[in-house]
Amino acid sequence: DAKTTQPNSMESNEEEPVHLPCNHSTISGTDYIHWYRQLPSQGPEYVIHGLTSNVNNRMASLAIAEDRKSSTLILHRATLRDAAVYYCILRELYNQGGKLIFGQGTELSVKP
Amino acid sequence: NAGVMQNPRHLVRRRGQEARLRCSPMKGHSHVYWYRQLPEEGLKFMVYLQKENIIDESGMPKERFSAEFPKEGPSILRIQQVVRGDSAAYFCASSPLATGTAARDTQYFGPGTRLTVL
For A42-59, b where at least 16 C-beta lie within 10 A, e where not — what string? Predict the structure, then answer.
């Protein structure tokens, strides 16, 4: 799986938008971009994924650069519950194994 | 629809004992993954199973670790003769993955089993 690069940590204020960046300069044309997060003392949970177009769901938005070498996870209004480690993961279209390869992620802290 | 269930949530073993970790996937999911998170480290893939088959065990330590997902019942991760270095959080995930769509599927994680080896 292609490598991703994320900042180790970020801070946000409650009720403000948060933009979490991810670089993936070696992405291939068939790699999907997935985001998971892990709240303290919990298992990871799926957030969102996309291929080329920007995506929105109830949790977040995913903005994908035109050249696909980077993406940004957007939390529109951070809450204290959003404090977690966020992982950006690339998944090959034809990866029959299906395993997720987690990097170090970005630890997001949210201040009241 | 109940989520992925893991038990026990906390397990304490002495060195040399066996640890058995159980994972019940979400209803309708026939694909199970195990991951390990060592203290202060990231999540690492261990093994991927379908019912009665091991599909990918490339992340499993060569000795003392085994996994199964029988036709009936939960998936089991078994660690024989535990050592202190096995102390970690073990997470199970399940998916309804259909072959060829791994890139689009979602994995649903359980709450984890925290193993402490004394």
Answer: ebbbbbbbbeeeebeeee
| pLDDT over 70 at B66, yes or no | yes
Name the closest residue on chain B to residue A33, using Cα atoms.
B103
Contact A20, A106 (CB under 8 A): yes
CB spacing of B44 vs A98 below 8 angstroms: no
Q: What is the pLDDT of residue A93?
A: 74
Strand, coil or helix: what is B46? Answer: strand
Q: Where are the beta strands (DSSP E) in A44-105?
A: 44-50, 55-56, 61-64, 70-75, 84-92
Q: Are A72 and A22 in contact (CB under 8 A)?
A: yes
pLDDT score recorded for residue A30:
85
Query: Are residues A103 and B102, on separate chains, in Cβ contact within 8 Å?
Result: no
pLDDT given at position B93: 96
Residue A16: how many other CB atoms lie within 10 Å: 12
Residue % of chain B over a pLDDT of 90: 78
